[in-house]
């Protein structure tokens, strides 16, 4: 027999029980009978090694058979009784009152380790700040807050964040969604207009009707406060700007934000929250709704702080507020639209929606006392085009013509009937053309002037002379615009053009690029 490398002649115990008893003994002396062998030194080393191995196995076995520790969060403490202070712990949705360890300064909000057998605190617990996210609607008191959670409302404990959170904060909840374990702050501040916009009403060429309607609604309630009070006239809830892309809807929104800020003595557009409709759409149910609610809470905080409404502008509004039941899969609008309507009804903010597809908006959005001021932002006519050209030619050097003459030339080229994009044939044989002027917008006018400057700059770079923009440069820029438009899809513009006689249309043919 060989035991840990020992031969029979080295160790001849009376029984294996003697070996077990030997190992169990705490202290082993050299004169122990078990060590009285032919080779005591070797036996002593091997037996001590055996004792260490078995002790480790016993310790490992004890650890593996020990019940797991639980984690909980301290809700409140009661230290009135110095000898037996207690704490209320939230553990898996249950409230437990246990004794506080006297050697640890445990406070509400702390995570603690709990014995699964006695449910008493045995140690500090490591912080694990993960869980579902809620939105603080209202801080009730130092201990509790009302939050939006899973499309509903819930009162939760502030925990260690008492006094550190406010309405509009996004917070992480524990596994039972009962106590706040982390504050994420107001992440939706990303929608606040981050720079000082210098767009004013005067910066916008044309669109006089739209500008006057917005100025009347945004400025008069404050500049003519007594008159509005006499008629009990309320500040409008919101506006809907309807018009093709590139016609100045975004600029009108920026000018409106600056206007209302300056009316209240502010130098910049504070409280201007600008959103692209698709920006807050999320695949998970409830996330987009929570984001939208937080945006309105941010607007309310601005009103409380500054005394005048924030402007919440949603561009491409049809992406967010489309007709309920029109979705192809998730029908997310069935939850977003009601949240939006609820927020508008209870908000001090002024909401401005912008879209080029008003037919896609849910009808409830534009109902009276909601977004009921509908303003058409149309394509510029020749006179409006001149106003836009004047703004864009402000610092442009010209050659051969005065500024007024060049403006007239630019407009005549852009609105020329020779810039044909499509031929429309009607059932009676009549042919109608869709020209560049039928799809023109302010951005196109501005872009044409910029392209003309590029043509002039390239010519001067090659000749080594500084001349200025010529009529030939403008002509080349306009021709480039026509070619570029022939590469694009104008289905929406064509449908708009023929809507009054669509049943009489036989064909629509695109002109070839020359």
Write up this protein.
There is one protein chain. Helix 7 (287-306) packs parallel to helix 8 and helix 9 (382-392) packs across helix 11 (442-463). The protein has helices at residues 16-24, 40-65, 208-218, 220-223, 225-230, 249-263, 287-306, 333-345, 382-392, 403-414, 442-463, 471-486, 491-497; strands at 69-78, 86-91, 94-99, 111-115, 121-124, 133-139, 144-149, 152-157, 170-173, 180-185, 238-242, 272-276, 311-315, 350-355, 373-376, 420-426, 431-435, 505-510. The protein has five domains: 16-65, no CATH class; 69-124, OB fold (Dihydrolipoamide Acetyltransferase, E2P) (Beta Barrel); 133-185, OB fold (Dihydrolipoamide Acetyltransferase, E2P), CATH 2.40.50.140; 191-376, 3-Layer(aba) Sandwich (Rossmann fold); 390-510, no CATH class. It contains 13 helices and 18 strands. The protein is of the alpha+beta class and 514 residues long. Helices cover 33% and strands 20% of the residues. The model is unreliable at 1-14 (pLDDT under 50). The chain starts with 15 loop residues before the first helix and ends with a strand. It is elongated, with a radius of gyration of 39 Å. A five-stranded antiparallel β-sheet has the order 3-2-1-4-5, with no helix packed on it. The chain has a five-stranded antiparallel β-sheet with strand order 8-7-6-9-10, covered by helices on one side.
